[in-house]
Write a structure and sequence with these properties.
By secondary structure, the protein is α+β, with helices and mostly antiparallel strands. It is 36% helix and 13% strand.
């Protein structure tokens, strides 16, 4: 029995001693006045009675009641029930309070609107009321009884009942109630006590049945009602994870309920931190305590809680929970979180399930609030049952007597997340919840029938009545007398405290059983376990061959937990009397399997695998020689688990428990006493150690003193002997067999801070010094053994100290142990020395022979094969992952280092894969990172030194060196690799040493010159100006320029340069005139043959003369000003500049630009005649010069100013050179646009929005930005409409760097306009590429490989974002050029991003560059001649090592690949060609991509060296030569879908969503390594069986193709390659000399061009088109655009139709699409040999009109139609009447945009027809076609 109430206290208002306005509480009386012995009076009750502070009130408030909770020093809770009522203040007291500082009093306004008292306006008539509180202090939580009792006392006082208050209080204090309601056996009076306080009242106190269960009444249900499910779950997790929780409410009772509810949810866990349901205002600073708490505070003080940064605030009135940013509350483990949430919602809102039913059942009766409260608690009880399932199996009984010691071993809580109790049956769950709730309800209300109260309550609004006198002072004597009487009575009676009923809690199923049940074994696990069992039985039966076959499968199976457990059990069966002696092979197998098991064990050994193997490693052994035995432990030490103290402690306590248990078991039940902990007790009925211990504790008091001593002694010696046993075991597993090797490996692996090299770091201070000792090698070799021994001794001593202290071992025993440990270690070291000596004499295991790699001609081995294992690197394919095929890696073989490559060749370690040769290689020059690693060898699971080599060709060699490879050999390999990767000079690279006899490092031998040319040229150039550049000269196809060139016109002499070159019919015949000096003439002729020059001729750009006589006909000229590379070293020798600019001005212009790279023309649009220029970025002064005011120059003008002026003149000359802008009067800038057009949408808006998401964070010129409201922006990054820039454009747009052009104001008078764009820098490309490499070739297998993780790392690299920006800028420039504006691209130094953009623009605009020849020309011109720094960016030499690899060129190729994917029919070359270039631009196999400029190439004598006659079949030095040779043998570089459109400008989509990851980054073939060195890979024509000749398989035509092993295109060639192969075979059979396939192909194409339509759409290619519907294809349709008739190319894409096009034109376009595909049906009677758009001048006084002309060879006529799809012919010119075709001249009304050379006349017998083609080449083609028709006739 316990007292219902300990103290009754009366607290009243008193003035504050320090004279502040607030009052304070004063205890008027307390009963009893003496403290109870068992329960002293709690301090500070006055604060808690009025938590908001003691204040007077202007009106009489109704009485309030709440229960505060105080916690004493012993963490006992005291419940203080407070009933507060208000009494009038006595005048004397009122006066004193008035005089004090009244303003500080809290003001509360009442409904009457009375103003409060203030010292300035006293209202003497106003009455004040002071609070008075009745307090009951109790250790029991019976809030309702307290409310009734205090209410009764208040009612007696208010109503003036004739009852003695002293008696009532005395009865209250002497009332006793049972502690807990006991079982049903007790009488009802015992469980439900009826009390009366002597005022005619009756109350029934129901004590709960189990006092351990919290009593929640309705508090949990209220909490959920106030805050909702999610918030309460958050608070629940916060309380569990020890966060600070603060409740706010205006109601004290609500605060108390909320806190009580939260605690009730935490059951069975007890909340042991600060718990204050109602915190007084004076104690608010408690909230800043660093410890966790659950506290309630009145909402009036919410402002004070704002500053708390780490407190979770739950506002009960507002229903919110605010979690600060810095606080992370971990949710429940996943299935449990969602399951709990759904069950809670079923309890709180049962109608939710029925809400959607068409015929909902009649309304279900909702539970009462009290019942709902219990249901909610039941949900949480179930949750804890799931979380804590099986935890008793994690307790270790270490000692039973004299005091029990129980250790908590570990809780595998994360496994429980997999439990699926009845989660699939919500109704079953709900039923279970309701059953639990009923039990909880019954616990709180055991006797509902008796619950009848009869208590007097005060009348309604009794508090407003005037009470004659205040609450009386009670007579202490009377109350004390009643209390003493009761105490005397109680002393006489026996202590009525119920005897504690001790019960044994059942242990529940063992943890292992729970895990097995819920983890869901691996698929196919039974089969795997069978494999493991079979392999072990083969090993022990001596069937070694069988075991060897199964071993790889076993090692794979051992990744699963079940298989590892199975292995341990199987091995146990083969141990007799703790020992199993094996022969060498058996021992080897067992050790390998053990290592495989242990390598996946974490340091804490969650699954008990290391624990199960620990007894076995000391059992299995082999005899090395008489008297020397090697145990398995010496071969399985390299695992992190052995160096983890927690593992050893858990093992030790487990073993001690087993032995202690065996002590007390009856001999009949006892297992073998020496049983190890590795085997779990198997019998069901066996009693657990906890059961045994509880029984022993029960018997303990009944035993004699001697027996007790004996048991304590036995336990002590058990623990002591186990400690010795474990000291031995630890020394076995911590002392390495070969101390030196293990030490090194350990440190490199860095296995945590508890192991040193010898596996046992002891102190944390040592952890820090380990790395140092390794680096400095301080004292490693000398005091090797003693150092290791000392560390092991310290580790063991620390362990012994800890476990013995915890297990209560006496200090004498402990000292004895400390003395023994060093001896144990020393003895073991001596034993090991003999074992190591003998083990070295064992014959080595037979290793497979090394496979030699195939080498290129001229490639030499630098280092012969080092035996290594090639390990999986995170790409699934090689490991036989989702890509299919068996696991090719890990493979065992050798790594070779040659002058060109690093090559691994070997075979898979898994014999079941078959004898496939695995090859992985990459060029030495491509190495980007080399890293030493420490890895486990796949076969023996030993920790070995390794190397990880990563290359920029997306290969990764992750190798573990074999034991036979010494560390010096590995070091030599690294040094040689480094030397080859970074040669001191470019002459030492493979491309130079190849084919020459000299060794790297020695200067090349000087070959005898063939004639004076080369020597004089080199000497002359270097002497004149050490500046130069270029590329090998290879014969190329000749281009016919337009036939109306001004032939034979004598070029005027130029006084300045003495250069004049006549333009002959073919550009390659530009011969120097006799006016040149011989050396200069040599230079000029060489320069004229360069790629740029040939391309300038093709584009019709300029003449080689600087006079102005031809300025009218030729706006541009070829200037030789840089022929000695004096102005700009990184530019080519010949440059295109405006005709009007003199050479001497160029020198000054170049000063304004970085690296002197001044603007030069690199391409001209054939249609719009706009030109594309490139330059370096402007210097600061250059920028200013562009926009400075147009003042007259001052007399003392500086050089910088003159340069700026020159620069401005130069730009003006460029603008004037464009035919459309020649008249300067038409200022065509965008400045005329009105501000009404300044929308932020539109084309430019999308380009300039900054930020990563929008891609190109640019601002396209202040004047350009977003002014066009012509069309809405295109979706998905598509190209804008070609017409979007039509209104008033600037003549020249200058694309510059945004950062550089900051603050520059455009000048409205200029004809050029700056477009500042934000581009990435080279270093960002480098960083992005590093991340891309990591994403594509991770280096280590992912824990859970998923496509998402790859895509995430790909996104992080931002590589595709950079591709997107490049394409976006390029499409923008293409649009500008297409619309007739010229563009100057001048970004960074003009050799990285500028080159990328300029090349892409030309590729997109000009179909010629999309041919093999054209693409080569583009690369030679823009990348090589214009000085992209290949050597610098590729870090080719030692000098560039620090700058690292920056793949600017690779990024450009990736962009080309993206365009190729979107327009597969526009490119003559295949994707393989791009990959080939991507591989070889870094491989240094060819000289093409070496060095940084033509100047450097000439200086090295590279450029013109191949002029002499060829000596036999030299190895190719130029990549182009190699491509040519290879193309003659195999069509690998050709794209069979090539069917280009007429003059189509490509506008690719550039959004990241439209971009694909290039398979060059991800694919590989392990059969032969990278396929880009064609000599090493068998080409398709050879029969594929040759690859498997070593396999001895029968030679059949069948072949299995594995992804990642074979190259599918090679194993399964496409149809055309197959046909060509078949042709070759047939030719060989017929004995005909084989024709080269290329010649045949060209002949077929030529025939097709003649017979079919001229745009390359002959029947064969179009058939190919139709077989590839998945490729997006742009179909050009020409629409007329007003009288001028300029053609507008409209894209018809399957993705979208252009939004701005009119519907009529769409239909026309659709029709045209159908005609494109149906044109091959010969239903039409007409034959179209050639067709296209021409402008035709009408008859006299009629305008020019665009017509669709068809040349018909068969009918010998030229017909014309209104438009392309028109079927009705508008007119016919009979070719029989044609007399001549001649160049024409423009007449009035002719199209303005067209070059004058595009006009031609057809003279017939009747009249002269005037025609105008779109550009010069098409005019030439029309003339040629008509001429050929005439000649055929």
């Amino acid at each position: 029995m316990a007292r219902l109430a300990d103290y009754f206290v009366l607290v009243a208002f008193g003035p504050h001693p320090r004279g502040s306005g607030e009052g304070q509480g004063q205890i008027l009386q307390r009963f009893p006045e003496k403290d109870w012995e068992d329960n002293p009076f709690p301090q500070g009750i006055e604060l808690f009675c009025q938590p908001s502070g003691w204040q007077l009130c202007p009106e009489r408030n109704p009485p309030t009641f709440f229960v505060a909770v105080l916690t004493d020093i012993n963490s006992e809770r005291h419940y203080c029930a407070c009933l507060t009522f208000w009494e009038p203040v006595e005048p004397s007291q009122q006066e004193t309070t008035r005089e004090e500082d009244a303003p500080e009093r809290e003001e509360e306004e009442d409904e009457g609107g009375q103003t409060h008292l203030s010292p300035t306006a006293p209202a003497p008539s106003a009455q004040l009321f002071a609070p008075k509180t009745l307090v009951l202090v109790s250790r029991l939580d019976h809030a309702e009884v307290f409310r009734n009792s205090l209410g009764l006392i208040y009612a007696i006082h208010v109503e003036g009942l004739n009852v003695c208050l002293e008696n009532v209080i005395g009865n209250l204090l002497t009332c006793t109630v049972p502690l807990a309601g006991g079982s049903q056996l007790d009488s009802v009076e015992e469980g439900a006590r009826t009390i009366s306080l002597g005022a005619g009242d009756r109350q029934v106190i129901q004590t709960p049945l189990a006092d351990s269960l919290p009593v929640s009444r309705c508090s949990v249900a209220l909490l959920f009602r106030q805050l909702g499910i999610t918030n309460v779950l958050s608070l629940f997790c916060a309380a569990l994870t020890e966060h600070k929780v603060l409740f706010l409410s205006r109601s004290y009772q609500r605060l108390a309920d909320a806190c009580r509810g939260l605690l009730a949810l935490l059951f069975p866990l007890r909340y042991s931190f600060t718990y204050v349901p109602i915190l007084p205002a004076q104690l608010l600073e408690v909230l800043s305590t660093p410890t966790p708490f659950i506290i309630g505070v009145n909402a009036a003080f919410q402002a004070e809680t704002q500053e708390l940064l780490d407190v979770i605030v739950a506002d009960l009135d507002g229903g919110t929970v605010a979690i600060p940013e810095c606080v992370h509350i971990p949710p429940l483990p996943e299935p449990l979180q969602s399951q709990t949430h759904s069950v809670l919602s079923m309890v709180l809102d049962p109608e939710l399930e029925l809400a959607d039913l068409a015929f909902p059942p009649p309304t279900t009766s909702t539970s009462s609030l009290k019942m709902q409260d219990k249901e909610l608690r039941a949900v949480f009880l179930r949750l804890f049952a799931q979380l804590l399932q099986g935890y008793r199996w994690c307790l270790h009984v270490v000692r039973v007597h004299p005091e029990p010691v129980i250790r908590f071993h570990k809780l595998v809580a994360h496994e429980v997340a997999r439990m699926r109790a009845d989660e699939n049956h919500p109704q079953r769950v709900l039923r279970h919840v309701q059953e639990l709730a009923e039990q909880l309800y019954k616990n709180e209300n055991p006797y509902p029938a008796v619950a009848m109260h009869k208590v007097q309550r005060p009348g309604e609004s009794s508090h407003l009545r005037r009470v004659p006198q205040p609450f009386p002072r009670l007579d202490e004597g009377t109350v004390q007398w009643i209390v003493d009487q009761a105490a005397a009575k109680m002393q006489g009676a026996p202590p009525a405290v119920k005897a504690e009923r001790r019960t044994t809690v059942p242990s529940g199923p063992p943890m292992t059983a729970i895990l097995e049940r819920c983890s869901g074994l691996h698929v196919n696990s039974a089969r795997r376990l069978e494999v493991v069992r079979n392999c072990i039985s083969y090993v022990f039966e001596g069937k070694m061959l069988e075991a060897k076959k199964l071993l790889p499968a076993v090692l794979r199976a051992l990744k699963g937990r079940a298989a590892r457990r199975c292995l341990a059990q199987e091995l146990h069966l083969h141990v007799q009397q703790n020992r199993a002696v094996l022969d060498h092979q058996q021992f080897d197998f067992v050790v390998r399997m053990m290592n495989c098991c242990l390598q996946d064990c974490t340091s804490l050994d969650e699954h008990g695998i290391a624990a199960a193997l620990l007894p076995l490693v000391t059992a299995f052994c082999r005899k090395l020689s008489p008297g020397v035995t090697q145990f398995a432990y010496s071969c399985v030490q390299e695992h992190v688990v052995w160096s983890t103290p927690q593992f050893w402690e858990a093992m030790f306590y487990g073993d001690v428990q087993t032995h202690i248990r065996a002590l007390y078991l009856e001999p009949t039940e006892d297992l073998a006493p020496a049983q190890e902990v590795g085997e779990a007790p198997s019998q069901e009925d066996e009693r657990s150690a906890l059961d045994v211990a509880s029984e022993q504790r029960r018997l303990w008091p009944t035993l004699s003193r001697e027996k007790q001593q004996e048991l304590v002694q036995k336990e002590e010696s058990t623990v002591f002997s186990q400690a010795i046993h474990y000291a031995n075991r630890m020394s076995y597993l911590l002392l390495p067999l070969d101390s030196s090797k293990s030490r090194l490996l350990r440190e490199r692996a860095g296995l945590g801070d508890l192991e040193s090299a010898s596996n046992s770091l002891v102190t944390n201070s040592m952890a820090g010094s380990v790395a140092e000792s390794y680096d400095t090698e301080s004292g490693f070799e000398d005091a090797e053994t003693c150092d290791v021994a000392g560390a092991v001794v310290r580790f063991i001593n620390r362990f012994v100290d800890k476990v013995c202290t915890e297990s209560g071992v006496t200090s004498d025993h402990l000292k004895g142990l400390h003395v023994m440990v060093p001896d144990i270690v020393q003895m073991h070291i001596e034993t090991l020395e003999a074992v190591q000596r003998e083990s070295r004499r064992l014959p080595p295991i037979q290793k497979p022979k090394l496979l030699r790699p195939r080498l290129l001609p001229g490639e030499e081995c630098v280092l012969d094969g080092l035996r290594v294992y090639l390990l999986p690197d995170g790409r699934e394919e090689g490991a036989g992952g989702s890509a299919g095929g068996p696991a090719l890696l890990p493979a065992e073989g050798a790594v070779f280092l040659t002058t060109y490559r690093v090559i691994f060749t070997g075979m898979p370690t898994d014999p079941l894969v078959g004898e496939q040769v695995v090859v992985r290689s990459f060029p030495v020059a491509a190495l980007t990172k080399e890293k030493r690693i420490s890895v486990q060898t796949p076969v023996d699971q030993l920790l070995q030194d390794g190397l990880q080599l990563r290359s920029c060709t997306f290969q990764l060699l992750k190798m573990a060196f074999d034991e036979e490879v010494g560390s010096d050999s590995a070091e030599l390999f690294r040094k040689q690799l480094h030397k080859l990767r970074y040669p001191p000079d470019v002459r030492a690279t493979f491309a130079f040493t190849l084919g020459s006899a000299h060794t790297p490092g020695r200067p090349p031998r000087v070959t005898k010159d063939k004639g004076p040319s080369l020597r004089t040229l080199s000497r002359n150039l270097v002497k004149n100006a050490k500046k130069t550049i270029g590329r090998q000269h290879v014969t190329r196809k000749k281009y016919n320029p337009p036939s109306w060139e001004h032939r034979g016109q004598p070029p005027p002499e130029d006084q300045e340069d003495e250069i004049s070159v006549s333009e002959e019919l073919e550009p390659s015949t530009l011969t120097p005139s006799s006016a040149l000096k011989p050396s200069d003439r040599m230079t000029m002729s060489s320069l004229v043959e360069r790629a740029c020059c040939r391309d300038y001729q093709r584009l019709g750009l300029g003449t080689l003369s600087s006079s102005l006589s031809r300025a009218k006909s030729e706006p541009f000229r070829i200037s030789p000003v840089n022929r000695m590379y004096a102005i700009c070293r990184s530019y080519p020798g010949l440059l295109i500049v405006p005709q009007s600019v003199q050479d001497n001005a160029l020198q000054r212009v170049s000063r304004c630009y970085r690296q002197n790279r001044f603007p030069v023309v690199c391409w001209r649009s054939g249609r719009s005649k706009a030109v594309l220029l490139r330059s370096g970025g402007l210097h600061g002064k250059g920028v200013v010069g562009l926009f400075k005011a147009q003042n007259a120059p001052s007399p003392g003008q500086s050089q910088a100013d003159s340069s700026s002026l020159e620069q401005e003149k130069y730009l003006q000359a460029v603008v004037s050179s464009m035919p459309r802008y020649a008249d300067a009067s038409g200022r065509n800038t965008l400045s005329g646009f009105s501000s009404a057009h300044m929308g932020s949408h539109g084309k430019w808006g999308s380009v300039r929005t900054s930020g990563r998401s929008s891609g190109l964070g640019t601002e396209v010129g202040s004047r350009l930005a977003g002014r066009d409201t012509l069309a809405p922006p295109q979706a998905n990054g598509g190209p804008p409409d070609p017409g979007f820039l039509r209104p008033q454009r600037a003549a020249l747009y200058i694309l510059g760097d945004k950062a550089q052009l900051k603050g520059v104001r455009p000048d409205p008078l200029q004809q050029w306009e700056l477009v500042p764009i934000e581009v990435f820098e080279a270093r960002q490309v480098k960083a992005s590429f590093k991340k891309l490499l990591k994403a594509c070739v991770p280096g280590c297998p992912a824990a859970e490989p998923s496509p998402a993780s790859f895509l995430r790392s790909l996104e992080d690299s931002e590589w595709l974002i950079q591709i997107h920006k490049l394409l976006q800028v390029s499409v923008l420039v293409v649009e500008l050029l297409d619309s007739g504006s010229s563009v100057l691209v001048g970004l960074e130094d003009g050799w990285d991003i500028t080159t990328q953009v300029v090349s892409l623009v030309q590729l997109l605009s000009d179909p010629f560059y999309r041919t093999l020849e054209g693409f080569r020309l583009l690369l030679e011109k823009e990348w090589l001649s214009f000085g992209h720094r290949f050597s610098h960016r590729g870090a080719h030499t030692l000098a560039g090592q620090s700058s690292g690899f920056t793949p600017v060129f690779l990024q450009f190729l990736d962009c080309v690949h993206q365009v190729h994917l979107q327009f597969p029919m526009e490119f003559e070359f295949s994707q393989f060609y791009l990959k080939f270039l991507g591989y070889h631009h870094v491989s240094r196999r060819f000289r093409t991509f070496l060095l940084d400029s033509d100047y450097e190439r000439i200086e090295l004598g590279l450029l013109y060296e191949e002029k002499g006659e060829r000596r036999g079949q030299l190895p190719c030095r130029s990549v182009w030569e190699y491509v040519d040779r290879l193309s003659k043998r195999t069509p690998v570089f050709y794209n069979y879908m090539y069917a280009p459109e007429d003059t189509e400008v490509l506008r690719p989509y550039s959004n990241v969503s439209n971009l694909k990851v290039w398979d060059f980054y991800t694919e590989e073939t392990l059969a032969e390594g990278p396929p880009y060195d064609w000599e090493l890979a068998q080409g398709p024509p050879e029969p594929p069986e040759e690859e498997r000749s070593d396999g001895g398989a029968p030679q059949s035509r069948r072949r299995v193709v594995w992804p990642c092993y074979d190259s599918c295109p090679r194993a399964q060639p496409d149809a055309i390659s197959r046909l060509l192969e078949e042709l070759q075979r047939l030719e060989t059979e017929l004995g005909r000399p084989a024709e080269r396939w290329k010649d045949t192909w060209d002949r077929v194409k030529a025939a097709q061009r003649l017979e079919g339509r001229p745009d390359g759409r002959g029947t064969p290619s179009s058939l190919l088109v139709s077989t590839a519907p998945h490729h997006r294809r742009s179909l050009g349709v020409y629409l007329q655009e007003g009288p001028v008739g300029s053609t507008l190319s409209l894209s018809l894409d399957s993705d979208q139709s252009s939004g701005s096009t009119a519907s009529g034109s769409r239909q026309a376009a659709r029709r045209s699409t159908s005609t494109l595909y149906s044109q091959f049906q010969t239903a039409e009677s007409e034959n179209r040999s050639y067709e296209g758009t021409l402008y035709k001048k009408g008859a006299f006084m009629k305008p020019w009109k665009a017509r669709w002309f068809v040349l018909d060879k068969t009918k010998h006529q030229l017909r014309y139609y209104d438009h392309r799809v028109d079927t009705e012919c508008k007119g016919v010119i009979d070719l029989a009447e044609v007399e001549a075709v001649a160049p024409g001249t423009p007449t009035m009304g002719a199209p303005k945009t067209v070059d004058e050379k595009a006009f031609f006349d057809v003279k017939t017998t009747r009249r002269v027809y005037n025609f105008c083609a779109q550009d010069v080449p098409s005019a030439q083609q029309w003339v040629d076609r008509i001429q050929s028709c005439l000649s055929d006739a």
